[in-house]
Design the sequence.
């Protein structure tokens, strides 16, 4: 179930992993925070960023892993 995520959680993850995600990736994740990308050559499953904004989202993040 895709749902938006606040950019602060993406930035927090970038900091923890010492990486910088592309703008396109961050924009997609801010809109749907996960999902799938299916092309002719590849299939990707995008795992959501951990959203601590409320208990319901924390449970959804936990149950989707």
Sequence:
């Amino acid at each position: 179930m895709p749902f938006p995520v606040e950019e602060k959680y993406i930035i927090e993850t970038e900091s923890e992993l010492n990486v910088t995600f592309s703008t396109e990736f961050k924009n997609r994740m801010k809109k749907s925070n996960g999902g799938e990308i299916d092309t002719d050559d590849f299939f990707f499953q995008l795992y959501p960023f951990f959203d601590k904004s409320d208990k319901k989202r924390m449970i959804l993040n936990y149950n989707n892993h």
About this structure: The chain has a mean pLDDT of 85. The two ends are 13 Å apart (CA to CA). The chain has one domain: 7-63. Helices lie at 7-17, 23-32, 55-63.
